[in-house]
Design goal:
Largest sheet: 7 strands, mixed
Strand content: 25-35%
CATH topology: Aminopeptidase
CATH superfamily: Gcn5-related N-acetyltransferase (GNAT)
Number of domains: 1
Distance between the termini: 34 Å
Mean pLDDT: 86
Number of strands: 7
Order of helices and strands: HEHHHEEHHHEHEHEE
CATH architecture: 3-Layer(aba) Sandwich
Length: 214
């Protein structure tokens, strides 16, 4: 199945905003079933996506059809500092974030250990020393019925352009080493393999796109 230009003409990209959070959480769960973040549940993911666009370290885009503005067709999110984003979740957003998180830990105690690994995640890979403004693509999700229609490409292009506008010269993304389709997708849009590391007992690959300054 190829791209559908007529369908893409009806799509508008807007900055990711807190009111997209519920739909973003739903798409995240549909797009990455069985991963650590989805195992935390829709409530935790909703707080994450409410926080991210309000954080100085977070940004992203939502793909919508202007005729149905409340239906999220896809989104992409990124951060210039995972540590800063985690800190914001653990301080300013703690009253909203902690209760659903503790409920999930109570039902699934093993998730607490995986959460500790997530907090250590920023230490698992390195950014070139000469790079003062790196960013990381955290998630890119598309409504299942609209996949393979070019929405993902639009979102990546918009994110890369925004990185350049912000003076970000390196954009990283972590991919499960077993996910060949995702790796091919990122290579197609300018990412190159950078390194391997282990997270949650699984092999991960870091891909990196080097961007020209705006």
């Amino acid at each position: 199945m190829g791209k559908h230009p007529a369908q893409l003409e009806r799509i508008t990209l807007v900055p990711l905003a807190p009111h997209h959070a519920t739909h973003a959480a739903r798409l995240h769960i549909l797009g990455q079933p069985g991963t650590f973040l989805t195992s935390l549940g829709a409530d935790v993911l909703t707080v994450l996506y409410q926080t991210l666009p309000l954080s100085p370290a977070g940004f992203g885009f939502a793909a919508i059809d202007p005729s149905q503005p409340h239906a999220l067709l896809g989104f992409v999110s990124a951060t210039t500092s995972i540590a800063a984003l985690f800190l914001e979740l653990g301080t300013r957003r703690l009253p909203a974030f902690l209760p659903p998180l503790l409920r999930r830990f109570g039902r699934h105690p093993a998730l607490a250990a995986r959460a500790a690994q997530t907090l250590a995640y920023p230490l698992l890979h390195s950014t070139p020393a000469e790079t003062s403004t790196p960013a990381e693509l955290l998630s890119i999700m598309v409504e299942p019925a609209r996949r393979r229609a070019g929405i993902g490409a639009l979102l990546v292009a918009a994110l890369q352009a925004e990185c350049q506008r912000r003076g970000v010269t390196v954009l990283d993304v972590t991919v499960d080493a077993a996910n060949d389709a995702a790796q091919r997708f990122y290579i197609r849009y300018g990412f190159a393999y950078a390194q391997a590391f282990s997270l949650y007992g699984r092999s991960m690959h870091l891909y990196r796109a080097k961007l020209a300054a705006a």
